[in-house]
Amino acid sequence: MRRKIAGIAAGIGLMLASGTSVLAQELTIFWAEWDPANYLQELVNEYETETGVRVTVETTPWSDFQTKAFTEFNARGDAYDLVVGDSQWLGAGSTGGHYVDLSDFFKEHNLGEVMAPATVKYYAEYPGNSGKYWAIPLEGDAVGWSYRKDWFEDPKEMEAFKAKYGYDLAPPKDWKQLRDIAEFFHRPDEKRYGVAIYTDNSYDALVMGVENAIFSYGGELGNYETYEVDGYINSDKAVAALEAYKELYQFTPPGWAKTFFVENNQAITEGLAAMSMNYFAFFPALLNEATNPHAKNTGFFANPAGPGGDQFAALGGQGISIVSYSQNKDEAMKFLEWFIRADVQKRWAELGGYTCHAKTLESEEFRNATPYNEAFYQTMFKVKDFWAVPEFAELLQQINQRIYPYIVGGEGTAKEALDALATDWTDTFKKYDRLK
Amino acid sequence: MTTDVITRLDPQSHAAKRGLSDLSIRNLFIIPTILFLIVFNIFPLLYSLYYSFTDFRASTNAAANFVGLQNYRELLNDPFIWNNFVITAKYVIVSVAGQVIVGFGVALLLNRDIPYKGLITTLLLLPMMLSMAVVGLFWKLLYDPSFGIINYALGLGTFEWLANPDMALYAVAITDIWMWSPFVMLLSLAGLSAVPKHLYEAAAIDRAGSLYTFFRITLPLVAPILMIAIIFRTMEAFKTFDLAYILTSQPTTEVLSIRLYKMAFQEWQTGRSCALAYIMLIVVVAITNIYVKYLNKVKER
Lengths: 436, 301
Hints:
The complex is a heterodimer. Chain A is α/β, with parallel strands linked by helices.
């Protein structure tokens, strides 16, 4: 009996001893559950072959990604060594003490120039223009558009369109054309609809969609340095943009009231809509004939310009940060050094990741690799993002509460909704002492 | 006669030989339960009460500052929160009323000698056994305006159940009624089968009408058990989350628990969400108390 116990104790001891030595050779990256996370797993498998350090990409569905990540941070848990966090998390992650300060790493490797400037600004730096960096841009992303090439290139449609609107039917160059084309193809009797847009108000979907309009109309959410919002978010340009978005809503398929990336890709795969907004990250699925029967007839274009010629898009995408409660921070740092290498970034792009590496992005090879890479390349130099302050989720809730009833429910006017929002945001910024 | 609740151990018994007194046996069973309750229920309850008076945010490492009644004051002055209360009340009334009418109605139909009664009852109970999330997901498909079977069966064309802000809450309530009417039916059946047959026979001899029999005999005798069903369903409906969250994201379906979830776990306003949770707790306790008082009255009759 005693021998047996001794044996078991020795076994447990051995397991613990080997367990700790194995731990040092392992890294866990936390991300949301989507294709890019699978591409990242493929990439880090190559890191394991090179260094022997095993890296696992752990994922969770988008809907509870934020909740799960912050629950782990709040508990100061070391389950994840690195996290590929949303750009809006920077404020909460840095001021909350959850992210390791990467400013020195950034300077040492001159990442401000190695990575595309917009990605550094939105995925890495907090507060704005502070020179403090908390993440390495990993997956660049922005909102773009897919469309049905066969509908657009049908001679009969082209003729009818020209007769009705006086110009040629082609991917829209501005928001007015976008609206016209959506109206033109909106034929509920034929079960064909004009356009698919984001309308889900539970997190940032609807807001991303509306941002595309606001930024391209020359509007702003506010002044990102002084936190003034009155006169920005309710400016004439922003009001016109919100009205334009609401106009598009009437050309959406029926029941289009809680839609995000899944539904917007379905709009194309099910042959419902002529055009559909979505993040570039979801476009590979549209070119895959296994997931999209219309793959051959699907084209892509960048978010069109507004009436004043401004052209911007809402930023998606994420940077990778080291979690400050990790037991393997040094190992994680070594991994980041490997990840920013030019050859690794090129490989990342080949695997399907949207690299933020400026040289790779600019290369002809990348831009011609897929039908949407060119649109992606153009977009990544003109992106803007939502507030990244720690209280961003409250700001999101407030904008959703104000604009959703206007867009989907048809309540009130755009001006009323945005005036009320300006008051909400001003109060929130005052509450957190950002505004006097 | 001894008044001891605990009976003495037989000195020859196994427990006595092992030296376990009745007192220690009692402690062995009760203390873990009490400890469990304290650690997992009472402590969090009191701790969140403290948080509800602070500006604590669980997403940062910053210390919590005491802000007094500010959270409660701001919440009760927030028109959006009041709107959430109105939505929740509407939902509770529609869904519980629907469940009682449908559930009790089906129970009346089943409370007679029909073939395959057991099988039919079991089949009717199926919705209740499904997971809320699964029910939400497949009703979302049933309601779909383009390919949903509901519009097809009712010939409603592309009627928008969930995208229409005025309809969405009722659509969620209909789903809830479908899922939980069987629960009311089950309890009602138990109540109905307990009504003594001789009362009906006496009523028949007196040539009482069927309506008169229903309101004077059936309903009063089933009322206590029906009230229990209503209490359970009201409490559940008041804190409903999954169905409404999965089916739609209309502001007109944002019931209190959804707002609470967003406040606590998306916005990380921990202090304020604790205050909201307390307000909800007080409301639920108050409503339940009214019901229980009424239930006792019904029982006395």
